[in-house]
Write a structure and sequence with these properties.
With about 350 residues, the protein is an alpha+beta fold. The protein has 9 helices and 13 strands. β1 and β2 form a beta hairpin.
Amino acid sequence: MLLENEPLAATWRDQLIELDLPGVGPIAASADPALFADEPDAAPGDQEELEYQRREPTTPPEAETVRATLRDRRPLELEHTWLVVPALGPVLPTLSPEGTIVADVSSGAAPFEVRAQPADQPARPSREGMRAGAPVEGAPRRVRPPELSWFRRPAVAAALRRRGGPVALGALVGPRRDWFEPAAAAREDLLAPHPDQALERALLIAVDHGQGAVLRIGPGGLDVIPTGADPRVPEIEGLDLLVTARPAQCPLQGRDGAGPCRPHGGPWIQRAHAAQVDWEARRSQALAVQGCGVCFGEALPPEPDQPQVPRLSHRSPVVEISRLHLRDGEVVRIDPIAPPR
């Protein structure tokens, strides 16, 4: 079966669909078949470790931990069907040379990367480069338009809104909460009078913004309708879907009520610096597409039972994110939406 042989294709079935639905509230939905299988026995002592030992760095939780959290929530019945359009633009890794990791040993700020400028920069970029926001020598730098950036949710949401009805903002999230993609959704019955017409409009928006599929969630379960842009996206129809209300919490945590996250890496050696840079990029990517009900993107001080380093930093704004964690497990370095000023 395609989903079993292709791990990336399986993510379209097993991913979490987390949206803030107008008139409903924050929801999480998943069609992972393991959710509907018999629950495995909990490992003895897990709860004691969580309660009485120092909290470990917040790395991606096990998929079963995430599934157990969904099972423990009260199921929610969706009254309407929603068409979900992913909004992650095509990403090309940057050609800039690898930078130097700079760390603040006082842990007042998270490590960051300083990149050298290529020596042979063209005096004037191509027409396509100018449209994408490439700087022109002697001219003021411009912010790249959202329809040409990796973060296309504003443009996708605007296209859905122009076709009628309220728009839900949210994210597609990995089964282990290890990657986060922006997404927007519209109610099927408000997008068009007939379901086929509504799907056609959503597919047109998805194609215009380079997306590989449209997802349909609602009383009928989960459907994944490929656009043809990516042959790895499977066609899925009528999978059982578990929908729950989603509490306001840290999007990196696999359990409800787990409190603030803790950085991975630290200000010790070069490898620790690099690990924290990647961790901070994942946190900023998560907070770009979802809200956090714990830190709200701010730099919280460590709790009394936690070490003083590494410290949680202020999240990077969307326009400054230069590393993305993708659904295939790759971490790519990209040019930010707006170059540093």
